[in-house]
Specification:
The protein is α/β, with parallel strands linked by helices. It has one domain: 3-Layer(aba) Sandwich (Rossmann fold). Helix content is 47%, strand content 20%. The chain has twelve helices and eight strands. Strands 1, 2, 3, 4, 5, 6, 7 and 8 form an eight-stranded mixed beta sheet that branches. Helix 8 packs antiparallel against helix 12 and helix 10 runs antiparallel to helix 12. The longest helix has 24 residues. 45% of the residues are buried.
C-alpha cells in the first residue's frame, strides 16, 4: 500500500517529466487539460481546468480556499490572481513546495497565497476555517476516502463546498481484466481510485449533499491522447536512459503511464468527473 512518503517521492522524482512533457514551467499544472469549443491549444486547456472548477464551485473573492494537493501552486495563483480569493495550498512534496514559493514571489501573491507541507487526511487547520476545499486530481491518492471527506467536513464552514476533479472507475474498470488501471495506479502511487457509488454514499455519511456530479470525460480526451503521444515519443529515450543510469523507482517507468491511462479510457474503464459537495448542517 502506498504511504505518505511514497506519494511524496512520486512527485519529487517525476517533476522533471512534468516540466518536459506537460509544460509545467509555463502552466504550473499537473492535471488533465479541459477542452471545449473555445480551446485552441494544450496550454489553454490546462488553464481551462481551473476556470471550470472555480465556476462549478462558485468561488467568490471573499472566499478562503484550501487547495488540497496544490502541486506547484498553479490553481492557487489562478484563484488568487483572477478571482481575488485567499488560498492555502498543501502538498506532500518538498520539491513542489519549493517551486510554489518561488512562483509566489514571481507573481507577487504573498498576501493572497500560502503554502506548506501537510497531509490533507489530517491537517492542523482550525474547525470551520475554509469556504471551499479544492481537490484537483489529488483525492485519488487518499487510501482512506472516508478520512479525506471527514477532514474536509471538519475544516469547512457549515455551508462550505468541496470541488473534486478526479478519475472514477466505471463498472468495467472495477473488473480491470487487462490490469490497465492497476498498472497506471502503481506508476502514479495511487492505491485505489474513486467510484461514484462510494463517493456519494460516503459524502452523505460525512454530512454532505451532492450538488454537481458531471462526467466530463469528453473534455479530457485530447489530454489523454497528448499523454499517450508523450509515451510514444518518450518510450525509446526513457529505456535507453534507464540502461545507463540508476533511475529512481517512480521515474524509471513513469512514461508507461501514458499508455495505461489512455488504453483504460478507450476501454471505458474510467471517467473524468467533476463533483461538488455542499456541507450540510445536522438535520438538513
Amino acid at each position: 500500500m502506498f504511504q505518505e512518503k511514497d506519494i511524496a517521492e512520486y512527485y519529487d522524482q517525476t517533476i522533471s517529466h512534468y516540466k518536459m512533457w506537460w509544460n509545467l514551467n509555463d502552466n504550473l499544472a499537473l492535471h488533465f487539460g479541459y477542452w471545449d469549443e473555445n480551446t485552441r491549444n494544450f496550454n489553454q486547456a490546462l488553464r481551462n481546468t481551473n476556470h471550470v472548477m472555480a465556476s462549478l464551485a462558485g468561488i467568490q473573492p471573499h472566499h478562503k480556499v484550501l487547495d488540497a494537493g496544490c502541486g506547484v501552486g498553479g490553481a492557487a495563483f489562478y484563484l488568487a490572481g483572477k478571482i481575488g480569493c485567499e488560498v492555502t495550498g498543501i502538498t506532500l512534496s518538498k520539491r513542489q513546495l519549493m517551486l510554489a514559493l518561488e512562483y509566489q514571489k514571481q507573481f507577487q501573491l504573498q498576501d493572497k497565497t500560502s503554502f506548506c507541507i501537510q497531509n490533507f487526511l489530517s491537517t492542523d487547520f482550525n474547525n470551520n476555517n475554509f469556504d471551499v476545499y479544492w481537490a484537483c486530481e489529488s483525492s485519488c491518492h487518499a487510501n482512506d476516502k472516508a478520512a479525506f471527506l471527514k477532514e474536509a467536513k471538519r475544516i469547512l464552514n457549515p455551508s462550505g463546498k468541496v470541488i473534486i476533479a478526479d478519475y472514477f472507475l466505471t463498472e468495467e474498470g472495477k473488473m480491470d481484466k487487462n490490469q490497465y488501471i492497476k498498472r497506471w495506479g502503481d506508476l502514479w502511487a495511487i492505491q485505489s481510485f474513486h467510484t461514484q457509488e462510494n463517493l456519494i454514499d460516503e459524502s452523505v455519511r460525512q454530512g454532505f449533499k451532492v450538488i454537481v456530479n458531471n462526467d466530463v470525460s469528453k473534455h479530457v480526451w485530447r489530454s489523454s491522447r497528448y499523454m499517450y503521444r508523450a509515451y510514444l515519443m518518450g518510450s525509446i529515450p526513457s529505456r535507453l536512459y534507464n540502461l545507463f543510469h540508476n533511475t529512481s523507482r517512480f521515474a524509471k517507468h513513469h512514461y508507461q503511464s501514458g499508455y495505461y491511462q489512455y488504453q483504460a479510457l478507450k476501454a471505458n474503464l474510467w471517467q473524468y468527473r467533476m463533483v461538488v459537495l455542499q456541507s450540510t448542517k445536522s438535520g438538513d
